[in-house]
Write a structure and sequence with these properties.
The chain is α/β, with parallel strands linked by helices and 406 residues long. The protein has 9 helices and 17 strands. The chain folds into 3 domains: 3-159, 3-Layer(aba) Sandwich (Rossmann fold); 164-251, Sandwich (Immunoglobulin-like); 255-404. 41% of the residues lie in helices and 26% in strands.
Amino acid sequence: MSGKLLLAVGVWGLATLSVGAPVALAQSGNAPIAVLGLDASDGAPATVANTITDALKQRVSAAKGFKLMPGKELMEVKLIFSCPDEAPSCMAQAAKSLGVEKLIFGSVKKSADGYLVTLKMLDTSKGRVDAWVAEQIARTQATAPGLRGPVQKWFATLSGVGTNGSIRISSDVPGASVLLDGLPVGITTEEALEMGGITSGRHEIVLSKPGYEPVRKDVNVIAGEVASVKTTMEAIGASTTPGSSDATASAIPDQDTQVATTDENSTMKIATWGTLGAGAIALALGVKFSLDVKGYDSDLDKYRRYDCGDGVNACSSKDGENVGVLSATEKNEAAQIQDDAKSPQTLQWVFYGAGAALVGTGVYLFVRTYLTDEPSAGSQTAMANRIQVTPTVTPNGAALSARLTF
């Protein structure tokens, strides 16, 4: 430790020790209480300890019957008063030097699933720890909003002061999801939604429903009382002109209409990708049959004959070897290959045509489904009726035909 740090610690120790007995209670009857900065250990970030400390101080400031006094860091107090093991008698001396009747201190340790928070409430006059809590929190809770609920519960346990109240939520729109401090708590109905056992203090309520703008409300819960919250939800795109209640009502989409529109959107998306997929398969089959035809054509090369130029003899190719005319057997073999090639020759063009039609239809559907802004209700159903995809099966093969009416 540097000389400057030792000097600073020594001066602070003399100043605090000179205070002597605890400061008397304020005339309002509020008990002076201090919150020491939590000790971060076992890999826990100091920022997490500071966040929890600040949340505790805010909770104490809002609590009735207590008066928050300035505190110090726990490590600093342990160093000055030689309290490495946080013995109650030793920590009581530190509390007296701060002029408080109650002292909250503790630590934050890193765990596998988050952080372990340990808090203690020390009674200065008795020189003992009256209450303590040890609770695990997730890493995502180590924020000011996420700590609001846990800190209220911890302080209630430490101080013995009840902090539960109720919230009653009423909305003009049934079926809206309700979140309390980011957690789902219910759905609005014709009757008010009431929740009990809510810790006192400020809470955030969010109502949301498809087709409506989300509503956010802050409510202050007081122990033993019911906080009423009335909300009005506005439909997305609804007119807000004063006196246009009829227009506003007509702009609110009916729930059945919303469901029908969602189903139509899903149907059109399925039809789009199904048509594009069928077109890709048809084109692939066209390529396959083209390769088959090319193979048959290669098999016929050895049976092809050309005039050698003398008007009498037959060659295997122009200016090629004189091989003579085909025998009867060779003619039969060549004819068999030509017969086998007829089916692939037909199917290649069938599938090329079907593939082109399906791909074109799929592109058109894609533009209408994904690139057209807010298609009107029923337009997608009408579009689906314009598309007809018909499979065709014959003794010589199979094909798909697509018809699109513009």
